[in-house]
């Protein structure tokens, strides 16, 4: 059995909610790549306090960006498997947002933005219109 037979592509147009969820996941991935790249460059340039930690942290952030970017691509292409990684990404973002909100620094607006994006994405991903477009949930009895 081919993978197309096991996981057929759902029929119909992509709903706006699914497009928005894909865009938010892609945005999170791109922000992680940018922040990781910045941290890695700072580590390589030697302007960071601990070069090894900065470089490792930057590369880790870039690696973590793969999950939301792959999920966003799958959501955009209406792949049912992509909803799981997208939901996991949002659930992982919530504790990060909480930690950012606990600081007394300029990170608080970032925590607010991350929390809003994560909650909005979760709402969009569990929406019945989204699950139906991805072919998840109720199946018509033949």
Structure description:
- This is Integral membrane protein.
- With about 140 residues, this protein is mostly helical.
- The chain has one domain.
- The chain contains seven helices and no strands.
- The chain is elongated and about 55 Å long.
- The model is unreliable at about 1-5 (pLDDT under 50).
> How much strand content do the residues show?
under 5%
The tally of structural domains comes to 1
| Rough outline | elongated
Integer average pLDDT: 87
Helix content: over 70%
Low-confidence stretches: 1-6
Using the CA coordinates, give the radius of gyration: 18 Å
Q: Please write the string of helix (H) and strand (E) elements.
A: HHHHHHH
Structural class of the helices, strands and pairings?
A: mainly alpha
Number of strands: 0
Tell me the major beta sheet: none
